[in-house]
Specification:
The protein is mostly beta strands and 327 residues long. Helix content is 14%, strand content 49%. The protein has 5 helices and 21 strands. The strands form 4 sheets. Strands 1, 2, 3, 4, 5, 6, 7, 13, 14, 18, 19, 20 and 21 form a 13-stranded mixed beta sheet that branches. A 3-stranded mixed beta sheet has the order 9-12-11.
């Protein structure tokens, strides 16, 4: 029987680097975020010949591509994972012996998306149209994975960078924003939570775990009060019921707009009330924003949304998952 192997393949400035499971002189990690923060990679290299600290020294803005593959895995989740494309943003070194650590994020090469402040008035447009315009001016493509498009009567981008403006706008409606390989991905958190689980993870499959719940219940309804933009009257919209109600004061274009914001806020507030952190042997088949079923623990059992996965290849290959319970 052949031994299991896992390899991280990294390409940088025409150079190809491999980090193999069991090689303790190099290490690789890849963090896959569902939303909110950029995906990232980190590569640690033993620079015995001191090429990296001199003629090969990385430059900020260089592109990095990475992937993980397994062979003879014999465990759930073996295969291939394309981690994507990253922009080098951090280099550190220490010694002796000389060791370099290179970090990259899945942000556009053009700093405009996250560093250039812009002012613009948006009127009578949808979130998809706003996102398309922002993507195009930053050299990105857009994947809008929501069943409905939300119309915005008017909104101001006032001396705000595109990344912050778009994320805040989507957050108001319970939408999530992720950057992956020069692409903006927008998805509806409530819709993704309703998807079936893609894998069952049993207690026996887990190397280590922790569980936390802040409240036994979740919000079962709520209300939002807004000032009508024409009449100036305060109007309240409600949804759901039960003893746990979320109350908000916010701006809104209409009752329908207020209802969308309220439901989005309830979804986001409920998300993360009960969490698990687990570490398993490496898997290439699970990614952030999917759902998994956890079994064998008792009360913590249930369906969980993957908020974040960190893959580590060095002496072994492991995955650490940050999960939020949804059922």
């Amino acid at each position: 029987m052949k031994a299991r192997t896992a390899t991280a393949a990294i390409a940088y400035s025409g150079r190809e680097i491999s980090v193999k499971m069991g090689d303790r002189t190099t290490s690789f990690s890849y963090t896959d975020q569902s939303s909110g923060n950029s995906d990232s990679v980190s590569l640690t290299i033993a620079d015995r010949e001191e090429k990296w600290i001199s003629s090969w020294f990385p430059e900020k803005g260089d592109k990095i591509t990475a992937s993980i593959s397994t062979a003879d895995w014999g465990l759930p989740g073996g295969g291939f994972m394309d981690c994507g494309e990253f922009i080098l943003d951090d280099v550190s070194a220490d010694g002796p012996p000389t060791v370099l650590t290179i970090g990259g994020v899945s942000a556009p090469a053009d700093d405009g998306f996250s560093e250039t402040k812009r002012s613009q008035t948006w009127e009578g447009v949808t979130i998809r149209q706003i996102a398309t315009s922002i993507a195009e001016r930053n050299g990105l493509s857009l994947e809008y994975d929501c069943s409905t498009d939300i119309t915005i009567a008017a909104t101001e981008q006032n001396e705000t960078v595109d990344s912050d403006f778009l994320t805040k706008l989507c957050d108001e409606y319970g939408l999530c924003v992720k950057i992956y390989t020069s692409k903006i991905v927008i998805f509806d958190l409530a819709e993704y939570e309703k998807k079936d689980h893609v894998a069952v993870i049993k207690k026996g499959d887990i190397i280590s775990w922790s569980f936390n719940t802040t409240l036994e219940g979740t919000y079962t309804g709520g209300d939002l009060t807004y000032t009508h933009p024409t009449s100036g009257q305060d109007i309240k919209v409600t949804t759901g019921g039960g003893s746990r109600s979320l109350s908000l004061n916010s701006s809104a274009d209409s009752g329908a707009d207020a209802y969308l914001k309220l439901n989005g806020a309830i979804t986001k507030a409920n998300h993360g009330m009960t969490t698990m952190s687990i570490t398993t042997t490496g898997r290439t088949d699970l990614v952030a924003s999917q759902n998994v079923q956890i079994t064998g623990f008792g009360k913590p059992d249930g369906k969980y949304f993957i908020d974040k996965v960190t893959h580590k290849v060095s002496g072994g290959y492991t995955c650490q998952y940050e999960l939020s319970k949804i059922e």
